[in-house]
């Protein structure tokens, strides 16, 4: 058995987010705090990464005051409650190799201290010393007690409705340790 461990380089890694509402969408970035992955005989064995919820940035709102107000709202208890829960974690519980460097992964996602299983396709391009991991993870925010303007919990929202699912486009660069 040849096991090799990799550590995420947070300077080279990033998570992009997209949240949608009736009238459009917002997008931005979240910093990756840390992560590790293990490969056995060149197959993904395990992995985990942590994002810093205090680092959420909004890229599509140019007005500084509006941007800061929105960022503050995302950090509030209506959304991620970043002061109480400064980290969100994804830990792989199962990885099944597929075609074209893809893995079907199941993992436990923890947001606001609430954990639920999430499925995703993880693409990995790996050399001996570097592994680049990319995935799109679709999350139902209501499972993590993020209910603000959700049709599941509120009526008559009209064009203020925010859709329950949001996307995380994860790009991780991990280096052999």
Automatic annotation (TrEMBL):
Entries under InterPro entries matching the protein: Lipid/polyisoprenoid-bd_YceI (IPR007372), TTHA0802/YceI-like_sf (IPR036761)
Domain of life: Bacteria
Domain Lipid/polyisoprenoid-binding YceI-like: 5-175
Protein name as annotated: Polyisoprenoid-binding protein YceI
Organism per entry: Chryseobacterium geocarposphaerae
């Amino acid at each position: 058995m040849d096991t090799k461990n990799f550590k995420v380089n947070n300077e080279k890694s990033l998570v992009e987010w997209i949240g949608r509402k009736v009238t459009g969408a917002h997008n931005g970035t979240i910093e990756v705090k840390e992560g590790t992955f293990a490969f056995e005989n060149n197959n993904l064995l395990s992995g985990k990464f942590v994002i810093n919820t205090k680092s959420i940035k909004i890229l599509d709102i140019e007005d500084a005051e509006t941007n800061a107000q929105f960022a503050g709202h995302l950090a509030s208890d209506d959304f991620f409650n970043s002061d109480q829960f400064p980290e969100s974690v994804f830990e792989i519980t199962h990885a099944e190799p597929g075609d074209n460097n893809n893995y079907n992964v199941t993992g436990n996602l923890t947001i606001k201290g609430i954990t639920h299983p999430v499925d995703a396709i993880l693409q990995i391009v790996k050399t001996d010393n570097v592994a680049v991991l990319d995935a799109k993870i679709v999350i139902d925010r209501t499972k993590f007690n993020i209910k603000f303007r959700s049709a599941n919990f509120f009526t008559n929202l009209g064009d203020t409705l925010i859709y329950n699912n949001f996307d995380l486009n994860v790009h991780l660069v991990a280096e052999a340790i």
